[in-house]
Amino acid sequence: PQKIYLSDYQVPNYLVEDVHLTFRLAPEATRVLSRITFRPNPDASSKDFFLHGEDLQLISAKIDGAEVTPDLVVGGLTCAVPDAPFVWEAEVEISPATNTALEGLYMSNGMYCTQCEAEGFRKITYYPDRPDVMSVFTVRIESDLPVLLSNGNPVTSGEGFAEWHDPWPKPAYLFALVGGELINHPDTFTTKSGKEVELNIYVRPGDEGKCAFGMEALKKSMVWDEEVYGREYDLDIFNIVAVDDFNMGAMENKGLNIFNSSCVLASAETSTDMNFERIEAIIAHEYFHNWTGNRITCRDWFQLCLKEGLTVYRDAQFTADMRSEPVKRIEDVIALRARQFREDNGPLAHPVRPDSFVEINNFYTATVYEKGAELIGMLKTLVGDAAYYKALDLYFDRHDGDAATIEDWLTVFEESTGRDLSQFKRWYEQAGTPRLAVEEAYEDGTFTLTFKQSTPPTPGQDQKDPRVIPIAVGLLNPNGDEVVPTTVLEMTEATQSFRFEGLTARPTPSILRSFSAPVILERASSNAERAFLLAHDTDPFNKWEAGRALARAGLVEMILNGAAPDGAYLDAVLQVLRDDSLDPAFRALALGLPSQDDLAQTLVDQGHTPDPQAIYEALETLKMAMATHMQDVLPRIYAQYQVTEAYQPDAAQSGARSLANAALSLISRVDGGTAAQAQYDSADNMTQQLAGLAALLTAGKGAQAVATFYEQWKEDRLVIDKWFGLQISLADPAQAAEVAEQLTQHPDFTMKNPNRFRATLGALAMSPAGFHRADGAGYKLLADWLIKLDPLNPQTTARMCSAFETWKRYDSDRQALIAAQLDRILAQDGLSRDTTEMLTRIRG
Ligand code: HT7
Ligand code: ZN
Question: What gap in Å lies between CA 405 and CA 145, rounded to an integer?
């Protein structure tokens, strides 16, 4: 397959003045009529006319009213055109009902919907489907369906048709259309300048009771973007539509956001606290794209982090403001390390701004999104809050209406702050997670920290240059008092020392507070020091981090040397649990243990080959030790943090529930599941019911609850996704592959729905001990299903291939088993470009 390079970028040969589209909807024979005004781009060096097009049946084409016969070529068409503005008209036929790839125009439960990012519009009609071609769209939809939506503002509608006009020029990837028998949950919002906006959430009949939370989240997002970034909404209407069959979470189409129903539908009975938090964040994320993504878009797909990194950063700020800043930061770092550090450390590592790709869908990654957001956070730390918002104002002023680049973004910051950001730019260009080694010295009241940065080679990048790293540091004296409050050290050299003078005793440093840079800190530390920081650090992130390091060190001893659980860890975490002055949500996080994947990587970093089963068993042993060590306190905590008020998914209540449920999970290891059964039986919300079910499964007493849960929820597809996933992720690893296999035979299993596929095969792939079972059953099952899914849905298949990305960490037997499965998939006839690229990179 052909690789595309950033360095080959050329401006478009033709620009689009305006676009008129007419859709005559029919499941297997939708007609799409386009009338597009093109003009030659004066900046282009070529006059060749090429339009992208895939899976289209061309019925007719005209230029300035005269029939033409274009040359149909791979990926589109070419045609001779006038050397002046001209009108292109085409009619094509497409088949939404048989479009299982969920890109372009497709059908989901009788509803027509679209997904055009990144390159789906070319499956709707012939068009220059690239983000730097922006135009004004007018759309007419003809169908008997009652709800017919597109981007922008409604123009007119009548029996069997509706017309929409979007006044804001946009690239084709932001185009959207929906048609269906949908129920509307309406509301309104008045912007700060007094403009009335109509808000709607459209859902399938039966889901109308699950829209209220999403609507509130939308209104909060609109207020927040006005208050924090000064950004107002710019159309008369904002529509959200929930769709069941969707490859990702949601899509920010201008004025018509389309959501995976799992990312917008919420009710106390069917959604957990975590679901609510996620839904609030995704609604905010898509809404924030209206400015960072839509009003200012990307010049080309290499610049994806320009909109995604910034928008993830903005949604994280929003969640921190709506809920708890430290808790959000800890959650985000857990996710960053689990997904992005893992990616950065393996065969799929790539720069935040990649310089080549085969299939852009494979680059909607944790690196582009989450590391991209970390870069924005570092920039803000380096320039300071006021300068950050001043630069953002300049960015919006200067680039509104543009298809911009990372260079544009950095230039704005350079001009507005006077800083040279050429070294900072390396963060966008160099893949891999920097290692930051620290050494300390103390003499005559002066404490010196010496940092050394290095980044291991990544595919295609052997050498790395030093980056600028903001390192937030505080110092504690031996009593645990903070003697130097948080100070940001700006590291620019490969090796660099920083001195703190005037101290009366050797301090304990708290380094990388709030996780001020996405690096791996390598620092020799003792368990006594970790326990000290866990007890005294004023920085909540580093307080949590100290507990995590303590747990990790003990677990490594257990795995490698058969040590008993570390009593010092058990005592330290008990202190935290008992400390009622601490936020319950924080305490719940402090009770959490490093994941199996985290421990596997820790062992690799220490020069060992991880044994997935030994890791699993050490975690189980430690959890049992925690349950017995804290036996007196856990029931007290469990009772104290029961929420008696009516269910609210807010930070206070969900924090209390998360602590009580962390306690329940431990209690059920020693009480035979009694408390879990009682909670399961009496629960009036999904958080409590699911935590009860999970605790019962952990106690080995879940069989009956699994059956009753299904009976209760079999009509609710999103709840049944949870039912599929939980049985696999909490199965005995020796049985996980069989449990997953059996669930793929369940009548409710379908591979056409990405949520269900992920809930089943994804759950297995994310359960390391079960997935990496020594006989290779997990690998084979996943490979079997990837082979079946690829012809239907390449995008979701390719994403799930990352289950194999850590394969080189394991022993040679497992590596051979995985290699055989990778090769088997790669040998399939007609394997998609998406999956071929992913597996070729993983195979190495
Ligand atoms: N900008 C969107 C990314 C996206 C996507 C969404 C749904 C289905 C397929 C997709 N391909 C790319 C989502 C976002 O980041 O907001
Ligand atoms: Zn996004």
Answer: 41
